[in-house]
Structures are given as structure tokens and as C-alpha cells.
Amino acid sequence: MNIWKKEKIRVRIAPSPTGALHIGTARSALFNYLFAKKNKGSFILRIEDTDLERSDLKWTQDIIDGLKWLGIEWDEGPDIGGAFGPYKQTQRIESYTKYLEKLLGEDKAYFCFCSSKDLEEKRQEQMTRGAAPKYDGTCAHLSKETVKKNISEGRPSVIRFRMHEKKIKFKDLIRGEIEFDTGLMGDIVIAKDTKTPLYNFAVVVDDYEMQISHVIRGEDHIANTPKQMMLQDALSFKPPAYAHIPLILAPDRSKMSKRYGSVSISDYKNMGYLPEAVINFMALLGWNPGTEKEIFSLSQLEKEFSLDKVQKAGAVFNIQRLDFINGYYIREKSDKKVAELCLPYLMSAGLIDGNRKIKGGEEVSEKKLEKIIQAYKARLKKLSEIVELADFFFKEKLEYNMNKLKWGTMDYAQTIESLNYSEKILSEIDNWEQKILEEKLMGAATKFNLEKGYPEKNRGYLLWPLRVALSAKEASASPFEIADILGKEKTLQRINDAIEALA
RNA sequence: GGUCCUAUCGUCUAGCCUGGUUCAGGACGCAUGGUUUUCAUCCAUGUAACCCGGGUUCAAAUCCCGGUAGGACCA
User: Fold this and answer.
1) CA–C1' span, A117 to B75, in Å?
2) Residues 6 or more apart in contact with residue A226 via CB below 8 angstroms
3) CA A112 to C1' B50, whole Å
4) Which CATH number fits domain A92-245: 1.10.3720.10, 3.40.50.800, 3.40.50.150, 3.40.50.620?
């Protein structure tokens, strides 16, 4: 560890803009970011956009937006620049060309003219023989004249790197020593031409030029590491330290994919997950603090994160745990804040318009919205759920299910009786406050049971029909909270509507 | 097919380096109970695991060896 002390810690995340920001990429970003923060290093964002066909600027934007939403900030990147730029691979072609020509000039790499059809046949043949599929070296020793001729004739070619047979060992910061036999790999393709590098080559050049000290990435890259190290060796680059973090797994323990639900950060954002919840959840997938603490803010993580507490095995993505953490963070927030966050969901559901008005034109005040949130905050696992839970506050008329209005053994007539009783009590209340409503109704419920001969302790005979009359739901906040929010007029109106529905 | 990685409750994990204090701790989930008109919150209780087989040792989840299983990569 001491050898790194003198060197500035520089880490990076290098996503390809070929799709929305993936949860796995986001977690890699988080681990890199935390490692940088903990060690007072720099965190760099680099966009690997050399695959022109699949790359799109909109995905670059999605990656940037997603990371920012999570609160992960970079010290250098395509949007803010930095001393080691540019930070998009398409702007770094000169570098790749330079090193590609160097390797070619030193005969450490060569042009290969084999067709993909030939290659495929050979590969099949090797595999049926039970051998490791690798390039057989057909073009490894073509004469300079042949190469020149082939190129001038425009024969399609790629650039291959001469892979020496070597046992290559590296110390993974999470897994310890890992050893590979490069003889099994064959000469790998590192570029399509001198202007079009492939992943393994570009990443080596970029990490070197950007002076990356630690490469922290998913374990799906372990097998790439020896190839990259051979390239570093050929180019006389000092290799960075490597740390391969476990993958996020689907419930069947395969690599997380769209098949099992959302994989992009923007989806989680849209579903109403809070960034602090997503961060907390991702951090705990594969890392633990070594204590029983489970709730961590980003800044706490920055202080406590450490690579040697990172797990070796993959971690199954458990959405119930995310929901729990998200619910926790929602409950922790102020009513005002949650109201603000819920507003867009209410609007896009059409319950409320841009001026906070409901269909009938009535405005829902800020205070009223906060009261709704106060009543429902504890029930939210995701912000989006506010729509289904609290829609009845924003409707002019409710539709009642007659059977839902009944409680226990009551029949329709008895239910009407109960509602009439509530109405009478409520209509006499002038000081319309939740506390008073609760006091009066609780007292009335007991009295009602005594008068009608219902079991004394079960207040449901009065409260259940009332609550359903006000909400049209089997599960909701208490009738006191709802009545308070609705106001006297609407409350009495709904009771009458319910009675009408039962008649 | 080859190479590499991994292996503790259903899931995330603590413990493993430095063998005994662990008939394995926490959290999510689930179940039950309490509070309660309902749901949720909150509180309490319960449920449930050391992949298998050898070895070392007085003693192994912990050390060694061998399997098995899963995954990733290579196209």
C-alpha cells in the first residue's frame, strides 16, 4: 500500500454511451468516487464513444444526468474538462494512432487480413478439438511487401498484438493474486485500423495518459486485465492497481439484465426512488461497513468506504430492500420536501394541473398538500405511489362499492344508519381541526356501539363506513385526517354521496 | 469447449486473516403478537444458513487438499 502513498490517487469511470446509465455502471462509479474521496484523490469521467454506430449523444447526457442526480461528482470530465483531456475517446484518436504506429513500427503488432469467415471456421475446429479458441497466427509473419500490397489493394484488415507466452500475475486489491497464461489467448485484435482502436487498447492508452492509479471495475473485466497488462508492458506503461468488484446479479444469479426489471438509473428516478436511497442501497450491494450500521448518506460513505470491505461474490439485486431503504428516506424527509417531490407524479397522473388545481377548478393549497403528505408519508415506498394512495383527495366525486362500505356484520341499512350518525356529529362541529374531529368521533363511536348494541370496543361500526365514504378505499389514512384535509363541506358531501349509493 | 472468479439464513451480509468467547450476529422479507376502524408506521417475538467430502487439531464456518455447483469472460 505504501507505494501508492506518494502517487496521487486517480480513478475513473469509463462508460460507453450506448444506452442509459446502467445500475451496475452507477455502482462502479460510486465505488470509484468513494475511493477517490476517501483517499483525497480525483475521480474522472471518461466517455468511451469509439463505437460510433451504437453511441449516441443522448446517452452521454443520460449518463451525466444520472450521475449528477445521484450526487456523484467528477473532478475531470467531458463537460468540465481537466488537465488530462479530452475526455471522450472520439477526441483522442491522435493518441491511439501514435501508440498503434509505435507498436506496428516495433513489430509488436501486425496487420491481419484473415476473413471473419475463415476465423470462425478455425475457431469451431479448435473448439471441437477441445482447445482454447485463439488466433492461429496465419498473418503473424507476412513480409512487408505482402502487407503493403494487401493494403494498397484495399483488403480488409485489422491490427493484432503479438501476445507472448507468459504467465502473468497481478494482485487484485479485492481478490488477491490472479494468474493467467497469455499463451492461451493468441494474438488479440487491438484495432480495426490506426484510427479505430478497440476496447482493450484504447483503455490502456487512456488510463496511462490520464495517469489513472487504480482501476476499479466490474469483475466481468478480470479476463481483460492480462491482455491490458501485456499491452502496457509492450508500451512501457506503468500498470495501475486493479480492483475488481462483484457484479450486481439478477434473482437467478445471472448478470443483471432488462429481463428482470429496470436496469437504468433514470427508470428508478422516474419510479420515485430517492437518490440517497439508491446510493445507500448500491453501496451495500457488495460492501459493508463492518458494523451493524445500515443507513449511510453519501458523505458518510465518503468517510467510511474501504476496498477491503468489498465482497468477492456477486450480489443479488433485491428490490424489496431498496423499497425499504427508500421508504425510510421518504419518512425522514420533511412533509414540505416530500410534497414537492410528489407533485410531478400527481400532475402527470392528471390529478392536478400546473397551477395546482383539480378538475373542478379548485386549488389545492401548499398547506393542504403537505397535510396529505403528512398523512401518507409513512405509507410510501416510492414517490409514485402517492397517486394511487391519495387520488381521492383530488376527485370531485367518488365511486362507491356498496359492500366495501359495510363493516363486520352490518347490512346496508345499518351502514346508512352509521353514516347518518357520523354526519350528525360532524355537522355540529364548527372548529374543524383534526384533533377535535378525532376526539368527537372516537367518543361518538363508543356511544354509537352502546346505543345500537354493537361490541363496545370495536369502533369500526362507526369509523369504517365513514372512512370508506370519505376515501372509497379499503385501506387509507384515518377518517380524522381525511376529514380535516377535505374540509367540512366536502366531508359532509361525501357522506351524503355514500348514503345515496347505499339507498 | 477453454480460462478465470466465487461459495454463511430466501436476499444483502458479520464472523474466516490471528481455530475455542458462535448449537453462527444484524438487516430486508416472511409469520405471529401489541397499538389500531383499515392499511402503513412504530414496538416485541419468531422463522431461517456455515455447498459436499476428506485431512490437520483436544477443538474448524474459520487452516490444508479434493470434489460439486453457480457465474463471468473468450465468439
Assistant:
1) 12
2) A168, A170, A180, A182, A185
3) 53
4) 3.40.50.620
